[in-house]
Design goal:
heterodimer, A: about 100 residues, alpha+beta, Beta-Lactamase, five-stranded antiparallel beta sheet, 2 helices, about 30% strand, B: about 425 residues, mainly beta, four-stranded antiparallel beta sheet, 4 helices, 23 strands, elongated, cytoplasm (chain A), Roadblock/LAMTOR2_dom (chain A), Dynein light chain roadblock (chain A)
Chain lengths: ~100, ~425
């Protein structure tokens, strides 16, 4: 448990990181550093986006798979590391 | 004999009436007395209390469901992912990739008018701009002036003006180069490879090639007024690539029904006729739609298009609305009278599409799809045809008035622009 917390702290300590959310494979957030309503919103929307991105990659080449997804917007950048059981979502503002 | 007598009355007792009489007996009983008593009590002090559950946030419920035990595999997942994520975060915070990158999601302002190019002398004389062409480098735009409303031979002088948009001293009102021409210019086309050559067709039927880099006399080659050249205004000129790479010839089409292929002869400064194609009514292949042959028998050509995919095919649109697919290599001789030309004319028409009403002003082949081309005529409709079938695939009503020019977008395969008589250009 402590290792999990330490890892999250290390990630949170990087430059410009605004928040971290860990979502399980069903789209339910299990750990977060943001407030509840934002967490739930991010988790639900990003889960759908990751599923769509993953199916896009796999449709184009069934041997290929999604390893990382980055969505850059005007205000910040959302990085998503997908895995079989969990997703890690990190929101960073690179210009901070 | 008969005497009256009175007798006593006799009574008979009824037997049955007696049995009707019931016997009556009465008996009674009574219970013993019932004892009853009354008492009441009262509470000295009272209290009221109630409970109610609050609607709890679904989220917090979800969040705290697994709070007690750590989800399985979370530690391993984080170990796997941590390095990648930290590396990306560090790289992102240092990257300059998106500096100054702006995305415009606003769709309203896609087209803006950059310059309004004018030639004051031509404007004073009321000349119309008959043809516009970009040169191959994309920085020079050439415009031909002439008249389109005159029905008779005109000997007015007119101009071909070029503007160089990337020059520092560019001014929209001052053309960089003005070429004087002795009659009205009706068609213009810049060379696809050499930025200084411009081919033009005149109202008198001549075809001229100008070289804008020559300061003395820009006329490079002239077709001259001979039996070879056109007699009627040349409505379209085009540069045709040949089999030998780098060589081009000039194709000119006029309203007398002749399409001529010229070769540039630099030594003599002339255009030498290479091949002649004459379109005659009788030789037009008739598709399933019958077409009544009228007039003098020639098919006046108003527009021309080369196919970028097939070097042998070219498309011709006529004054009467005919659309024909023609081939450069056709060998059938034309049925027109041979008037002492150097090259015997041939009939090029191979296939005719369904005719539209009114002259076909513009044809353009799609640069992305092998078999598609667009045609625009005076009926305000733009027809999308396939080279393989006679009737159009799609007809779009672009405006209520005439459509003068239609062209495919060079970058987006499904977009084309149409210029209409009302002065509007629409992108579809």
């Amino acid at each position: 448990m402590a290792e999990v917390e330490e890892t999250l702290k290390r990630i949170q300590g990087q430059k410009g990181v605004q928040g971290i959310i860990i979502v399980n494979s069903e789209g339910i957030p299990i750990k977060t550093t943001l407030d509840n309503s934002s967490t739930v919103q991010y988790a639900g929307l990003i889960h759908q986006l990751v599923m769509k991105a993953r199916s896009t990659i796999r449709d184009m080449d069934p041997q290929n798979d999604l390893t990382f997804l980055r969505v850059r917007s005007k205000k910040n950048e959302i990085m998503i590391a997908p895995d079989k059981d969990y997703f890690l979502i990190v929101i960073q503002n690179p210009s901070d | 004999m008969f005497t009256d007598e009175a007798l006593e009355s006799i009574s008979i007792q009824s037997l049955w009436r007696k049995s009707q009489r019931l016997e009556q007996e009465s008996r009674g009983c009574q219970t013993t007395e019932v004892h009853s008593a009354e008492t009441d009590t009262q509470a000295v002090s009272t209290t009221i209390s109630s409970t109610q559950t609050e609607p709890q946030d679904q989220a917090t419920e979800l969040l705290w469901k697994n709070h007690e035990s750590e989800p399985p595999g979370l530690k391993d997942f984080l170990q796997r992912v941590e390095d990648v994520v930290i590396r990306e975060l560090v790289r992102n915070s240092r990257s300059h990739a998106f500096d100054g990158f702006q995305v415009n999601w606003d769709y309203s302002q896609l087209v803006s008018c950059l310059h309004c190019l004018q030639h004051p002398t031509a404007q004073e004389r009321g000349l119309h701009a008959t043809s516009v062409s970009w040169n191959c480098t994309g920085s020079v735009i050439a415009c031909a002036y002439g008249r389109v409303d005159d029905g008779h031979w005109s000997t007015e002088r007119s101009y071909v003006c070029t503007w160089n948009l990337s020059r520092r001293g560019f001014s929209p009102k001052q053309a960089d180069l003005i070429i004087d021409v002795h009659t009205a210019v009706t068609a213009l086309c810049c060379h696809p490879n050499q930025p200084t050559l411009i081919a033009g067709g005149l109202y008198s039927g001549e075809v001229v090639v100008w070289d804008t880099s020559r300061t003395q006399d820009p006329v490079l080659a002239l077709s001259g007024m001979s039996a070879d050249s056109h007699r009627e205004p040349v409505y379209q000129v085009a540069w045709v690539p040949l089999e030998k790479k780098g060589e081009f010839r000039v194709l000119s089409a006029s309203s007398e029904g002749r399409v001529l292929l010229w070769m540039v002869d630099l030594d003599q400064g002339r255009l030498v006729l290479n091949a002649a194609y004459v379109l005659v009514q009788q030789q037009v292949p008739h598709s399933s739609v019958s077409f009544k042959a009228q007039g003098s028998g020639t098919v006046g050509v108003t527009s021309l298009a080369l196919s970028p995919w097939d070097s042998d095919t070219f498309l011709v649109g006529s004054e009467a609305g005919l659309l024909l697919r023609c081939s450069f290599s056709s060998k059938t001789p034309a049925a027109a009278p041979f008037e002492g030309q150097s090259v015997p004319p041939r009939a090029p028409a191979v296939f005719s599409f369904r005719p539209c009403s009114g002259p076909v002003h513009s044809i353009h082949c799609s640069p992305f799809h092998r078999n598609l081309f667009l045609s625009a005529g005076t009926d305000g409709l733009v027809h999308l045809h396939s080279l393989l079938q006679a009737s159009p695939l799609l007809s779009l009503k672009v405006s209520d008035s005439y459509t003068f020019q239609v062209q495919w977008s060079p970058t987006r395969p499904l977009v084309f622009a149409a210029a209409t008589g009302q002065g509007a250009t629409s992108q579809l």
